[in-house]
Amino acid sequence: xxxxxxxxxxxxxxxxxxxxxxxxxxxxxxxxxxxxxxxxxxxxxxxxxxxxxxxxxxxxxxxxxxxxxxxxxxxxxxxxxxxxxxxxxxxxxxxxxxxxxxxxxxxxxxxxxxxxxxxxxxxxxxxxxxxxxxxxxxxxxxxxxxxxxxxxxxxxxxxxxxxxxxxxxxxxxxxxxxxxxxxxxxxxxxxxxxxxxxxxxxxxxxxx
Length: 208
Known about the structure:
The chain has about 210 residues and is α+β, with helices and mostly antiparallel strands. The protein has helices spanning about 1-30, 95-105, 185-190; strands at about 35-40, 45-50, 55-70, 75-90, 120-130, 135-145, 145-160, 165-175, 190-205. The protein folds into two domains: about 1-30; about 30-205, Lipocalin (Beta Barrel), CATH 2.40.128. About 20% of the residues lie in helices and about 50% in strands. Strands 1, 2, 3, 4, 5, 6, 7, 8 and 9 form a nine-stranded antiparallel sheet that branches. The model has no long low-confidence stretch (mean pLDDT about 85).
């Protein structure tokens, strides 16, 4: 009888120790997940489009509307940023008439059709560190209601206790999103590629 009781006690102790070890292991290796909300007033998105024949570029900006980033143990793992396409501006044309004409064209059905598609978005699905200390980001981008896969490099500029900042250069093929100048000669002389310079500043959600 004594040996039977002793065996039961040993088994219970062993089971209890195993549970404790598993619990501590899970606690030790569980990633620390933090959610950050993107600060539109501190973030920015700049665009550059290129004219092939005249060898010049136009540039401007678009407002970041809202978004979130998720970090695990201080590393970016996912996120989404929504862009207000109605806010698109031009920064290089000083003549007000020319400036307004270009912005009107960009907002029209021939380009971004902001009346029907007032928002664009970039979604971050996967992040890998590269050898040159950058982040290789895989996700998708949605423009004019069309979603395409995208891969680009980003850099983490700043990480404090309650805020984080990332920057990235993204090259887009406008023809994949039906951003066309009709079938006129103007469409032929415009580069299919345009560049987005993205800076995201985000603050931590929840208890600080």
